[in-house]
Write a structure and sequence with these properties.
heterodimer; A: alpha+beta; eight-stranded antiparallel beta sheet; two-stranded antiparallel ribbon; 5 helices; 24% strand; B: mainly alpha; 8 helices
Chain lengths: 285, 163
């Protein structure tokens, strides 16, 4: 296997849409902001670390030496200070993660079950295995959490949201439903604006407002001769974000799957909206 | 960044833009996304260029940014992959007749993301096993076994297409 064989397979390369000068301009601005206002950009991250250090470590704790408040941000650039995801802005949730997950599971199950076709069974979904080796039941929320970790020049982790999933099986075929409930911001925050459908798919999007000031972005897209996805993003005024999706394949529309889609997704966009707007589906009950 | 450093950065990116775009395309199979990934990659590279330019393996570093950006993008937008020492089986193993019908890119697309990345890094970017393992945050043995299995599938396609 050689590079040439790959290049032959790639074929003609379309004109680049990489705007190199725009990238340079953006990075120059970023560098300028960091220099001029360190407390509003990278400095904010350092300040947060300093506060955490002061809070977590007791006086005299040798671990306090690990992060010294006031350490210079320029001494060790923190890649997490310019993480690609915005920071979560929602207030800390009032419940423990376990309590919230259990409550949300009840709300979601009660909202979904009467809306799927009669006789539809809700089964565990592969996405419900978290952490690895622990399988959660259908529509049972679990807390996905990973600390932000700075690698050399990159930042990973930073997950903090609740997720639930189920495979559906009924006379209309198989499908799946999954949902995320999160504080706003972070890497799982719902979309607040419509965007083009994913590459290789065709579909439409609609942005509306809910009865209580929610922002709703509902989209549906279909991969040609393959699966259809209905997805609803809801941003609630209380700081809760909800993403809920239904696909007409048992596992995931983005993966190769054995089952051929033979019906619509188990929930329509209207049904997904109704579920997502359920007042109980909040992190601030 | 000092002016001479920025000039060096521009020269480096300009010289490698084509291969970066092609590599990104092999990973994601979407030219628009590939260009987005490259834009993000060169942005991240710019931030660290004064230090990176002094490295012995600058290309490996850049490919690490690119691959991780792609994996992050996949994890963020759709599936949430968990890094694992043992890479997962492909969802569908192509049979011989499928191999004959599908093109190289389609077969590559059938590989799970990290195995696909391993094959691209080893055989398109010509990175060493060690560099590939470092980028994918797994052992050299894992890279060897995964690329060998990926390569077996790809070789089968090439043989089929040449016969």
């Amino acid at each position: 296997m050689s590079r040439e064989q790959f290049d032959v397979a790639i074929g003609s390369v379309p004109a680049s849409t990489v705007d190199f000068d725009a990238v340079l301009d953006r990075e120059r601005r970023r560098a300028r902001v960091r220099r001029v206002a360190p407390w509003t950009a990278a400095g904010a991250g350092v300040a947060a670390v300093a506060v955490v250090a002061a809070t977590v470590f007791a006086p005299g704790d040798p671990g306090a030496a690990a992060v010294m408040p006031g350490s210079s941000p320029s001494a060790s650039p923190d890649p997490c200070a310019h993480d690609p995801f915005p920071p979560q802005t929602g207030a800390p949730i009032p419940e423990t993660a376990d309590v919230a997950a259990k409550r949300l599971s009840g709300v979601l199950t009660s909202a979904v079950r009467p809306r799927v076709a009669a006789g539809t069974q809700l089964q565990p979904h592969a996405q419900g295995e978290y952490p690895k080796g622990k399988q959660h039941g259908p529509l049972t929320f679990y807390h996905v959490f990973s600390a932000r970790v700075a690698h050399e020049g990159a930042c990973s982790g930073g997950e903090d949201y609740f997720m639930a999933a189920a495979t559906t099986a009924g006379s209309a075929g198989t499908g799946n439903v999954w949902a995320i409930v999160t504080r706003l911001g972070g890497n799982a925050t719902p979309a607040t604006e419509c965007a083009p459908p994913p590459g290789g798919s065709e579909g439409g999007c609609d942005r509306t407002s809910g009865p209580n000031g929610e922002t709703i972005v509902a989209l549906t897209f279909t991969y040609p001769e393959d699966s259809t996805v209905n997805r609803v993003n809801v941003t609630k005024p209380d700081g809760t974000g909800v993403i809920i999706e239904a696909e007409n394949v048992a596992d995931s529309a983005k993966q190769k799957h054995d089952d051929s889609p033979d019906g619509p997704p188990p929930l329509s966009l209207a049904q997904l909206k109704a579920v997502a707007l359920d007042p109980g589906l909040t992190l601030y009950p | 960044m000092k002016r001479p450093e920025e000039a060096g950065f521009r020269d480096y990116v300009t010289a490698r833009m084509d291969v970066l775009r092609r590599t990104a395309y092999l990973l994601c199979r979407d030219w628009h996304l590939a260009d987005d990934l490259v834009s993000i990659t060169i942005g991240k590279l710019y931030r660290h260029w004064p230090r990176v330019r002094l490295m012995d393996h600058v290309d490996a570093y850049v490919h690490r940014i690119l691959v991780r950006t792609w994996l992050d993008e996949k994890a963020r937008a759709w599936r949430r992959e968990e890094p694992a020492e043992t890479l997962p089986e492909p969802a569908v193993l192509p049979s011989d007749d499928v191999v004959e019908r599908l093109g190289l890119l389609e077969l590559l697309d059938a590989l799970p993301p990290r195995r696909r990345a391993a094959v691209v890094l080893r055989y398109y970017c010509d990175l060493s096993v060690e560099d590939t393992a470092e980028i994918l945050e797994c052992s050299s043995g894992t890279v060897k076994s995964q690329t060998a299995r990926g390569l077996d599938s790809l070789r089968a396609l090439v043989v089929a297409s040449q016969s």
